[in-house]
Design brief:
This protein is an alpha/beta fold. The chain has one domain: Dihydrofolate Reductase, subunit A (3-Layer(aba) Sandwich), CATH 3.40.430.10. The protein is 21% helix and 25% strand. It is built from 5 helices and 9 strands. The protein has helices at residues 28-39, 48-54, 102-109, 126-135, 147-155, and strands spanning 2-9, 43-47, 69-73, 92-96, 114-118, 140-143, 161-166, 194-202, 205-212. The chain has a 9-stranded mixed beta sheet with strand order 5-4-3-2-6-1-7-9-8. Helix 3 (102-109) links the parallel strand 4 (92-96) and strand 5 (114-118). It starts with a strand and ends in a 5-residue tail after the last strand. The structure holds NADP nicotinamide-adenine-dinucleotide phosphate.
Length: 217
């Protein structure tokens, strides 16, 4: 499976403000680019933090033959039944764990076009989850955040490519989400090294495209 991470961050690396509300970091040209990216993948994934903060629909706006499958990484099945990601505009998979309350799982399963997949016990095991998604035919996966999920995917060495739009706004804040949050890489030698493959100006910012190299042993 090819895993592409895409996000928009402020000049100081924040995905949002300290209030964790959705912020317009890019503009219309970048929205069209992301729409085309979605149209080109089998599935689009976000963490439950992003669903709770932004309530995204994750569908392709332009008319397409098939909408990509929407995937939420949600250990405790906290996705609200009213979340836009559960509407019938596209198929959705909620990836949860064996610890999730059965009643919540059943409620999610009753949403139109939604299936629930279990991977892990207390927290979603991303290696298992991506293996299971590959078994269902997901060859190209686009991950659209947030910072906690992005960090875990890098930590599990599951990311092939990162495209990050750097917008012309400075958000600041010790606790504002950044491109990669989680526990962080404490030993620099274990931190992933990226190879810059493209730089382009879009709207009032810049799009950086990076390939993820193998970490040297
Ligand atoms: N600018 C952008 O491009 C962009 C894109 C997306 C989001 N955002 C912003 O980012 C913020 C949300 O990001 P976030 O970091 O709080 O949330 P997130 O990464 O979307 O979701 C994190 C949650 O996913 C669940 N999860 C389950 N298994 C996991 C695993 N193995 N590794 C990591 N997470 C796992 C955890 O909750 P459970 O333990 O309950 O499962 C965790 O708290 C919001 O402010 C949103 O506006 C910005």
């Amino acid at each position: 499976m090819y895993v592409l991470v895409n996000a928009a961050m402020s000049v100081d690396g924040k995905l949002s403000t300290v209030r964790r509300e959705q912020v317009a970091i890019s503009g219309s040209e970048d929205f069209r680019r992301v729409d085309a990216l979605r149209a080109d993948v089998d599935a689009v994934m976000v963490g439950i933090g992003t669903v709770l903060a932004d309530d995204p629909s994750l569908t392709v706006d332009e008319p397409v033959a098939h909408q990509p499958t929407r995937i939420v990484v949600d250990s405790r099945a906290r996705t609200p039944p009213t979340a836009r990601i559960l509407d019938d505009a596209a198929p959705t998979v909620v990836v949860t764990t064996t610890d999730a309350q059965q009643a919540r799982v059943e409620q999610l399963q009753s949403a139109p076009s939604t299936t629930v997949l279990s991977a892990g016990t207390d927290r979603v095991d991303l290696v298992k989850a991506l293996d299971r998604l590959a078994d269902t035919g997901v060859d190209r996966l686009l991950v659209e955040g947030g910072g906690e999920l992005i960090f875990s995917l890098f930590a599990a060495e599951l990311v092939d490519e990162l495209s990050v739009y750097v917008g012309n706004v400075l958000l600041g804040g010790d606790h504002a989400p950044t491109l990669a949050d989680g526990a962080g890489f404490t030993a620099p030698e274990t931190a992933p090294r990226l190879e810059l493959i493209d730089v382009s100006e879009i709207d009032d910012g810049v799009l950086l495209t990076w390939a993820v190299s193998e970490v040297e042993p």
